[in-house]
Amino acid sequence: MTCILETRSLNKEFGAVIAAKDLNVQINKGEVVGVIGSNGAGKTTFINMVTGYLKPTRGEILFNGKSIMGHSPRAITRAGMARSFQVAQLFPEMTVIDNLIVALAAAESARPSFLSPLRSDARIARAEEILREFGVENYRDSLVTAVPQGARKLVDIAMALIGNPQMLLLDEPTSGVSVDEKTDLMDTVMNAVRQHGVTVLFVEHDMDVVERYVSRVLAFYSGEIIADGEPAAVLADQQVRDLVTGHRPTTKQGNGAS
Amino acid sequence: MRLDKTEISLGLVALACVLFGFVSPGWLIFLLTIALAKALVVQGVVMQMRSGLVSFGQGLFYCIGGYTVGMGGQFFGIHDAIAALSLGMFVAIVVAMLLGLLLTRYREIFFAMLSLAFSMILFGILVKSQELGSTDGFNVHDWTLFGWAPEAGAGSQHTVFTMTVVSGLIVAVLIHRYTKAGIGVICEAVRENEVRVEYLGLSPRWLLYGNYVAAAAVSALGGGLTALATGHVDPEMAYWTTSGEFVFIALLGGLGHVAAPFIAAIVFSFVRTYAIEFVPHTWQMILGFTLLAVIIFLPKGLWSLVSREKTGERA
Ligand SMILES: Nc1ncnc2c1ncn2[C@@H]1O[C@H](COP(=O)(O)OP(=O)(O)OP(=O)(O)O)[C@@H](O)[C@H]1O
Ligand SMILES: [Mg+2]
Q: Which of A104, A96, A99 is nearest to A137 (CA)?
């Protein structure tokens, strides 16, 4: 198995707050990794550092064996690592399809054209395909601010996938989505991801969702990784149960950690 | 090259303007020429507003365009109008490529103030330059068009008017395409969500840079045409109140359509001309109330009067 993403003693301090402490992570190609941890455990900080949004205080990040320390988010995106956001990051005054079309144009070239129309027939057709793939074709011409949270999340993820990344980091793809819709949303996402053959790491608070989709779990607590392994083992770990998931009975009562 | 509906309409309006030039009185021709030339500068302001930046120093490029035309004729023997105008745009592009490196690091009020600062620096330099007539500026040499010299006075005024209308048409068509092209739409995307643009693998800074340079070229063309029309340039062109006027006209017209700055500039010129004539001491107040009324009743500018029924359509 080849390692696609590796961090070595990654640290991040915000003043007195230690948001990441000696994170040593190796993600292999093709894995689907779930990240769990209570609020403020450092999950988003980890994604932000890996994608170049936050500068680590110390440590090393390797993507496909090469250091990406100090690279800009756009360089890292172009290198093949895409992400979605805890709060969907879209263009609020544009329609859903225009959001996708902008992403398609960006994926084609880093230098957008000065005179040829952005909304070309080819891009519109491709965007419509993506709308169908993600099951949001009903919102084609709605402003993104007017569509439900779940659809917004899907558009956010679709935009990340448009650049054909090798690795996708999803920050709480199901947050703000009702419990019944979570599985549908994740099925849609995981289908798309499988078709693209992408390595995935996603942050999730709902342990049922985690167990259903991942092959490996990283448990964060207070900036540290306290467990790393197969879902069954990690979720059964006493420390994880004490600090992250709470004493979760086998029923699906509650929302996992919060 | 296929023309869309907007482009055909723009062409027809331009043709009507040119024909109107043959029958209209000289004072009106002059007023329209200045208004349309200023509208080109305003187009530059609007291009930046679309990307979320308000330039309070677009007078810089207006002045560069004007002074290059003036200096080219007086000192370097460049008498051909087209050559002089092109040179003005070229100088503006070079200056914008330098200043843009710094300016595109800034946003919002910081960008506005910094752009203002640069135009005031030029104003200061020109005021100190005795050879360029200091605060009085200097006159623009008689010019030619492809070797033909229009007769001074009415003839040359009519020629500038036609040139301004034609330039306005070309710029309007180009900007119309530009706003729908990759860079135009993605500059709006930068305004809406810079983080997302960055995570699509694009550099917001370089997009804003390209947009800034393009806007400078358009504004310099407006300055050059103004110099040809008035036959005179002075440092006032770079003064902050001049830049303020361009922002004013941009807000008056709104961002809804490429024609809006032209309409707004014409309305502005008429309001100002008549206000100065009939109520000489209160014309600024009248402009103030006009802007207030536009912001309150037509927050998307005068163009929203035209596009009332077409809401939802994206230009
Ligand atoms: N920009 C910042 N400045 C200061 N402190 C920050 C910053 N970003 C995060 N933190 C702190 O770092 C810690 C980790 O935050 P992070 O957002 O990574 O948590 P998280 O695991 O994503 O939590 P959640 O489940 O709420 O999203 C928290 O204590 C947070 O307050
Ligand atoms: Mg988070």
A: A96
From the DSSP assignment, how many helices (H) and strands (E) are in chain B? Answer: 13, 2
Q: Which of A132, A164, A196 is the last residue before a domain boundary? A: A164
Whether A82 has its CB under 8 Å from any CB of chain B: the answer is yes
A206 is a domain residue: yes
Residues B69 and A237: their CA atoms lie apart, in Å, by 78
* A57 part of a folded domain: yes
Q: Which domain holds residue A53?
A: 1-80+166-258
For B277, other C-beta atoms within 10 Å of its C-beta total: 9
**How close, in Å, is residue A188 to chain B by CA atoms?**
21
Residues within 8 A of B (CB atoms), A 142-161 only: 159-160
Residue B150, domain extent:
5-314
Structural domains counted in chain A: 2
Across chain B, where does the E strand assignment appear? 138-139, 232-233
A110, A143, A164 — which closes off a domain? A164
Residue A110 inside a domain? The answer is yes
Which of B180, B188, B201 is the closest to A74 by Cβ? Answer: B201
Pocket of ligand 1 (CB under 6 A): A 14, 17, 19, 37, 39-45, 86
Q: Whole-model pTM?
A: 0.88
pLDDT digits (tens, 9 = 90+) for A159-195: 999 989 999 999 999 888 888 888 888 888 898 888 8
Q: What is the ipTM, given to two decimal places?
A: 0.88
